[in-house]
UniProtKB/TrEMBL annotation, chain B:
Record key words, sorted: Membrane, Transmembrane, Transmembrane helix
Classification via Pfam families: DUF898
Keyword Signal: no
Transmembrane annotation, as ranges: 29-49, 79-95, 101-118, 138-164, 199-228, 240-264, 292-311
The protein's name in its UniProt record: DUF898 domain-containing protein
Organism: Pararhizobium antarcticum
Superkingdom to which the source organism belongs: Bacteria
Length: 361, 363
């Protein structure tokens, strides 16, 4: 009798509890390996409760030290807290004992390396991978998308805020001719752009571009310019910049990328931090649109200089804004556009740079 | 059968059996950092498997009467669910920019799908949860979800929160009365009066926050008047003062609404769980100290922020332990054998949608 107990102890893999299929009842039991088969024996007594081929049982992957489950094909379940015993048995029987993931997860000084790697890779992904993904998405977007986008936006604007221009035909022709000069120098060419005159209403003195090259200039802006057509062309060159650099599509994809990122990490950072991330994402989007404005300003300087206009014409527009509207604000975290004085200075600096380069050539 | 003499759910006793949490921040740290690292390395794909490991850790360490719960969802199920929700979000955002009217139509359409999605989400989450080899189930229909998750929140918002307790009651009744453990049912009927008592406390906290802001505005009345008279004339020092005041006001609002929400959540949970019976006779109980819960949640957030997220595992374990140890069940009479009902898990789309939209309640 004593010998048989010892023998059974040698075969024992782990102690635990056993449930019949579909039942909450359990028996104290042990898992035993017997002649190539896996057997659950009642403790005490040793009655066979379940038997299964090694290949037909399913052992749950290890997570921390939560109980391990051994599922038999008949639906019964052996559960044990002795994770190490199960791991040793799996290793003995030539199966993968624990996943690589679990081995990484163990508390160990090397976790410091993982922390550093996480911070590094995280900022790399944010800094480089996300922009690359945005570029890929922009590249594979068929041109029909910005086309539909623009047509429907224009329709909505016309129906709600804009009305037909009151500008006389001669003035319109003058501006259109000058505009054609800068449009011809853009990669899309004159055919890639259409300039539309509208009375701005609530929009006020403004010019904006839609992603398919539709540009809108309001009568109020022409009035504000008081005959300085070159300045208007400078503003339009800025809008061409937005179109050439595909700013609006990028914005859409960046927003989608941020939403995806937050969705994936939400469970790991907790709901409080998730809310803060969403807010932070909004602020980042604002700062991105500031970068986009500055890029469009530089585009205006380059284009104007190429067309033989005054490269700093758009700076005059900001000067005018400053005088008429009293915008003296500096850039703050919360504004989409850089502060006017700052922006003017950046334009003048860049124009000097472009000019120096031209002279050097 | 030979199993009659074996261990089973306990016989009747007057004792409350509390849940415990056996995990530790130290152990979870490894799981957590590997989850995030692999999620980043695989550009998000691993996040589905990460969720399974995280949930298995938290369910498995939630222990009642010596036995833990188990989370059975597979990474692939979660991944497909996430893919569908993400595809919807991308299509929705593109449509909203490209053809705004169609985008808005899609948003309205999904609004009508919310009850169905929530119902399927609750069902999935219940069916992938087990205790002692028997899975939970959820048998609620779309109609109940419509009332609890669409009519309720809209009503609460329209009445500025005055009818929020009604919405809470609908929600807990919908979840609590349709939850099953194997073949046995849960029943609940949280009293409206008891929920309103909790609501009153939260309303007072918000009122206090508003009073503080009102006081701030009153102190700076002269400043504000001069601003209205001549908006251009404000010297920079006063402008800075105005900005500081704005920031303080924003923080006061944030803190008072945050604490009010946490206190309300804990209070309503206490009312709802404590009015729940399992199998018609075994009472459940939740006795979360309301301010204790708010303190744990708020200090968790602060500690996590100050340590750039590194203390998040500790914070998550701390909250789980706090909530578990304030949750209990008492057995009046022998529970006996509970039989499992075989059901398909179904798709994880609803569960992932709920997770994205921030619907958040344990099983």
């Amino acid at each position: 009798m004593k010998a048989s107990i010892l023998a059974s102890d040698n075969r024992t893999i782990a102690e635990g509890e056993w449930h019949p299929a579909h039942s909450s009842l359990s028996v104290v039991a042990r898992l035993v390996e017997d002649a190539g088969a896996l057997v659950v024996e009642r403790v005490p007594g040793g009655d066979r409760l379940a038997t299964g081929e090694l290949a037909s049982v399913e052992v749950s992957p290890r997570v921390g030290s939560i109980p391990r489950r051994v599922n038999f094909a008949d639906g019964s379940l052996f559960e044990t807290t002795d994770n190490d015993a199960i791991d040793r048995w799996l290793l003995r029987s030539g199966r993968r004992s624990t996943s690589l993931v679990h081995r990484l997860e163990r508390f160990h000084p090397r976790l410091v390396v993982l922390v550093v790697a996480t911070f590094l890779l995280g900022s790399l992904v944010y800094r480089y991978a996300l922009p690359v993904l945005v570029e890929v998405a922009v590249a594979v977007t068929p041109p029909v998308v910005p086309k539909i986008m623009s047509v429907s936006t224009m329709e909505t604007m016309d129906r709600t805020m804009l009305s037909p221009s009151q500008l006389n035909a001669g003035k319109q022709r003058e501006i259109s001719e000058d505009f054609a000069r800068i449009a011809a120098l853009s990669p899309r060419g004159t055919a890639g752009y259409s300039l539309n005159f509208r009375a701005g209403g609530a929009v006020g003195p403004n010019a904006f571009a839609l992603p398919d090259g539709t540009l809108v200039l309001t009568d109020e802006l022409v009035e504000l310019a008081a005959g300085d057509d070159e300045m208007i062309i400078g503003v339009l060159a800025h809008e061409i910049g937005h179109v050439e650099l595909e700013h609006s599509l990028r914005q859409v994809y960046r927003a989608a990328g941020m939403a995806g990122l937050i969705m994936m990490l939400a469970g790991d950072v907790g709901s409080g931090i998730e809310d803060l991330l969403v807010q932070g994402g909004g602020l980042l989007a604002l700062s991105h649109s500031r970068t986009a404005e500055a890029a469009a300003d530089r585009h205006s300087v380059e284009l104007m200089s190429k067309a033989g206009f005054d490269a700093t014409a758009i700076a005059r527009f900001f000067e005018l804004l400053e005088q008429k509207l009293g915008d003296r604000s500096d850039t703050s975290m919360l504004s989409t556009h850089p502060g006017t004085p700052e922006r003017k200075k950046a334009i003048l600096d860049y124009a000097a740079e472009v000019q120096a380069k031209q002279q050097a050539d | 059968m030979a199993l009659t003499d074996t261990a089973t759910l306990p016989a009747a006793s007057e004792d409350w059996h509390r849940l415990s949490f056996t995990g530790s921040g130290r152990e979870y740290f490894g799981i957590w950092i590997v989850n995030i690292l692999l999620t980043i390395v695989t550009v998000g794909i691993y996040s589905a498997w990460a969720k399974v490991r995280r949930n298995r850790y938290f369910y498995g360490n939630s222990v009642l009467l010596g036995r833990g719960f188990e989370y059975h969802a597979k990474g692939k199920q979660i991944f497909i669910g996430r893919l569908i929700v993400f595809a919807y979000l991308v299509i929705y955002n593109v449509l909203l920019t490209v053809v705004p009217l169609v985008g808005i139509a899609l948003a309205v359409l999904i609004l009508f799908f919310i009850p169905w999605l929530v119902m399927r989400g609750l069902r999935f989450n219940a069916r992938v949860t087990s205790y002692r080899n028997v899975r939970f189930n959820f048998v609620g229909g779309v109609g109940g979800a419509f009332l609890a998750f669409l009519v309720g929140p809209v009503l609460a918002a329209l009445t500025l929160g005055i009818l929020a307790p009604l919405a809470s009651r609908w929600m807990y009744r919908y979840i609590g009365n349709n939850m099953r453990y194997g073949t046995k049912a849960f029943t609940t009927d949280p009293g409206l009066g008891a929920i309103y008592k909790n609501w009153l406390l939260s309303a007072l906290i918000i009122l206090l926050g508003l009073l503080i802001i009102g006081f701030l505005v009153f102190l700076n009345m002269s400043l504000i008047f001069s601003l209205i008279d001549k908006p251009q004339s404000l010297p920079p020092e006063l402008q800075a003062a105005m900005v500081t005041m704005g920031v303080i006001g924003y923080l006061v609002i944030l803190v008072s609404f945050g604490i009010a929400a946490l206190v309300y959540r804990a209070g309503v949970r206490n009312v709802a769980w404590s009015s729940t019976l399992f199998d018609g006779r075994h009472p459940l109980k939740s006795d979360l100290p309301r301010f204790g819960y708010a303190w744990v949640a708020v200090s968790n957030l602060i500690v996590t922020l100050l340590t750039l997220g590194l203390m998040r595992p500790w914070a998550a374990v701390r909250l789980a332990r706090y909530v578990n140890t304030h949750t209990a069940v008492r057995f009046s009479g022998n529970v006996g054998e509970v039989f499992a009902v075989s059901e398909q898990d179904g798709s994880a789309v609803g569960a992932e949608f709920m997770a994205y939209e921030g619907f958040d309640f344990g099983f």
